[in-house]
Specification:
Length: 262
Amino acid sequence: MGVSDRFDEVFSALEQQASDLTARLESARSRIRELESTNQELVARLTRIQQMSGADGGHSPVSASPSDDVPEAVPVAFEGAEAGSMATSDDSDVSLSFVPDRPVASDELPPVPEESSTPTEQNMSEVVETAPLDPVQEDISPQALLKQWYKRYPKTFFERHTRPLAIGIHEALAAREPYSEKLIRRALAGYVNLPRYLKSVRVNAPRIDLEGQEAGRVEEEDARHAKEQLKRLQDRQQEREAEKQKLRLAQKMSELAHRHQR
């Protein structure tokens, strides 16, 4: 097979990929239009119900704004202060909560559990919240709070070498920090979801409290879950790198085809 034939095959494959992507994009746009139409119908229906309720009870109807009924979802996992660390999620993964020692399937996220008398490490990262933070807490982000902890608790939170945290450490933080428990949990989730933290969760490794003192040991099940979680993060990173490589190759082939046509 000659170079020209090979080039024609590659170019045809690229054209087919472009056609497939265009079709998928159009399908997504159509779906968005359908959802927007459905949303408008639901808002109109809610407005009518509120007006009827107001007429019956003597109360003025409440404005049916989407923001009043559907609270904004709070993203869970983030990279924190670790520059250059492995990204934990792309646009479709940002809202997922990954439990470092006991991960939850991305399509089966549970609601935030009520506080039990016996805290578990699972509480540290099960922070899928639907309610926004209190206004007084919105002046600091989870990332910024985590950076403060690096300085305030240098024997517990580390920017490089990392050690497993004590079970229930979120309660100790809540007792000391002047922030809401929601914000504390989000900042803590950003730390325990880092690849370097997951690597530190090994069998029988000592856990530490806010003073840097030993507070229990990592059990075999915890280490196994952390290892599985780390592998998922690494697999997603490899998938993203592969996609980037495909895009770079497609761009180079397109440039080559353009020069060949001239």
